[in-house]
User: Which sequence fits this backbone?
């Protein structure tokens, strides 16, 4: 699990200690991090000795989910837009959902709190009634063991808590999520919002 998003090692963006990365927390891209993670906000789904995995929450595509998974289209939250979850395995689909139940209905694997990943082979009419929110992503973001920790030390990312896991994950206006999360975090991270991609221009 690898990606090529890196930040210039000479840019000391993070001015305070990060939270530890773990499932359910948000990974927020530094201002200078380029494609494919420019202004990305990633929900971490896994972080352990085998590596890290997450999905980018704020990169909607122009595709309708109905073109790839028509049976799930009517169960989605908001517009039936397919989101790009990251640069890895773009030919695969991942369903991220919130459940209304304390237990795990068949086809739902809990990640953190109400959030989990669904098995898209589960009949939608069986699982759909147990979900309070659903979004489908093409691809994901992945890191090899210790890779994400190294990028955090470089200042490529900040780790923050989701204010409301469901609201942040299924954000209605994804273009605003990066600046919203940073302003909410305050301190040095709030400064990132107005920081140019190239600090030499500041």
Assistant:
């Amino acid at each position: 699990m690898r990606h090529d998003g890196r930040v210039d090692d000479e840019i000391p963006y993070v001015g305070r200690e990060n939270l530890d990365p773990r499932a359910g927390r948000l990974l927020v891209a530094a201002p200078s991090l380029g494609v494919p993670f420019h202004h990305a906000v990633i929900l971490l789904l896994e972080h352990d000795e085998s590596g890290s995995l997450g999905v980018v929450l704020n990169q909607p595509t122009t595709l309708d989910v109905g073109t790839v998974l028509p049976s799930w289209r009517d169960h989605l939250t908001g517009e039936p837009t397919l989101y790009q979850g990251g640069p890895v395995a773009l030919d695969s689909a991942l369903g991220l959902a919130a459940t209304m139940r304390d237990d795990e209905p068949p086809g739902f694997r809990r990640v953190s709190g109400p959030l989990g990943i669904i098995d898209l082979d589960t009949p939608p009419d069986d699982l759909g009634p147990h979900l309070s929110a659903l979004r489908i992503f093409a691809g994901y973001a992945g890191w090899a063991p210790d890779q994400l920790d190294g990028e955090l030390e470089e200042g490529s990312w900040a780790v923050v808590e989701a204010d409301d896991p469901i609201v942040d994950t299924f954000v209605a206006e994804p273009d605003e999520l990066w600046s919203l999360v940073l302003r909410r975090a305050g301190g040095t991270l709030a400064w990132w919002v107005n920081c140019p991609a190239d600090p030499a221009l500041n």
About this structure: The longest strand covers residues 131-143. Helices lie at 124-127, 147-154, 165-169, 177-185, 187-192.
